[in-house]
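Worked problem 6 (solution included).
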Amino acid sequence: METTIKLTTDFIKLDSLLKLEGVAESGGDAKHLIRDGLVTVNGKRTTQRGKKIRTGDVVEVRVEPRVRITVRESTQEGKG
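Solution. The predicted structure is:
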């Protein structure tokens, strides 16, 4: 699954992004995905659930089906 979101703020925290996109049902689920090393940001594995995701970042989650989220800038809508 590949999706793009549009930010209206400077950043979104990684765990919040995973919840927003429906990859994780809760903050606890997001924490487990990140802690277990299933999440990469711009190709690098991260274990920081509060990592700031900014315009241009690409987040991938290694679950089935694989999820790829690209972050774009928007001045109008928060999700596109």
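Discussion: DSSP finds two helices and seven strands in the chain.
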